[in-house]
Amino acid sequence: MYLYFSHPREGAAAAAQTLAGFAAVTPPRGATMVATKKSKKSTDNINNKLQLVMKSGKYTLGYKTVLRTLRNSKSKLVIIANNCPPLRKSEIEYYAMLAKVTVHHFHGNNVDLGTACGKYFRVCCLSIIDPGDSDIIKTTPGDQ
């Protein structure tokens, strides 16, 4: 914000009066940094576990194959991106509830989920059939 005044005394008084209207609001000490750091760490944690599943486990990507694995009771965990359409999301959650499978809502959009899987395309949802060397099923909180 730049303030231009012609006279020095006039400028100081006007600037003080203008800036008095703005109240400095500061968050509690360390609250913002801790929350951001914690969510970043949990995001990195699930990204690393997803990469390990992609290397050593069995999985399916995409809406139709996720529904197929849920109907056949092969799925152990379903991960859904946060910008998945509501109707699609509710249908996946319904089939997962019937199959007693945990659903995890990924904190990124479908581009972020695709990148976390090591793919160059968007991934709306994925189903983990066999986690391989990863412990993603035990440590991922279910959001059902």
3D architecture notes:
- The chain is of the alpha+beta class and 144 residues long.
- It has a domain at 44-139: Ribosomal protein L30/S12 (60s Ribosomal Protein L30, Chain: A, 2-Layer Sandwich).
- It is built from 6 helices and 4 strands; from the N terminus they run H-H-E-H-E-H-E-H-E-H.
- It has a 4-stranded mixed β-sheet with strand order 1-4-2-3, with helices on both faces.
- Strand 2, helix 4 and strand 3 (102-105) form a beta-alpha-beta unit.
- The model is unreliable at 32-36 (pLDDT under 50).
Q: Strand sequence of the main sheet, in spatial order?
A: 1-4-2-3
C-alpha geometry? globular
Q: What gap, in angstroms, lies between the N and C termini? A: 47 Å
* Global Rg: 24 Å
> How many individual helices?
6
In the CATH hierarchy, the third-tier topology of the domain at 44-139 is known as: 60s Ribosomal Protein L30, Chain: A
Biggest beta sheet attributes: 4 strands, mixed
CATH hierarchy: architecture of the domain at 44-139:
2-Layer Sandwich
Number of strands: 4
Pfam families: Ribosomal_L7Ae
Organism: Setaria italica
Domain Ribosomal protein eL8/eL30/eS12/Gadd45: 44-137
GO molecular function: RNA binding; structural constituent of ribosome
In short:
The chain is an alpha+beta fold and 144 residues long. It contains six helices and four strands.
Describe the protein's topology.
Blueprint: H1 8-20, H2 31-56, E1 58-61, H3 63-71, E2 77-80, H4 86-99, E3 102-105, H5 110-116, E4 125-130, H6 136-139
Parallel strand pairs: 2-3
Antiparallel strand pairs: 1-4, 2-4
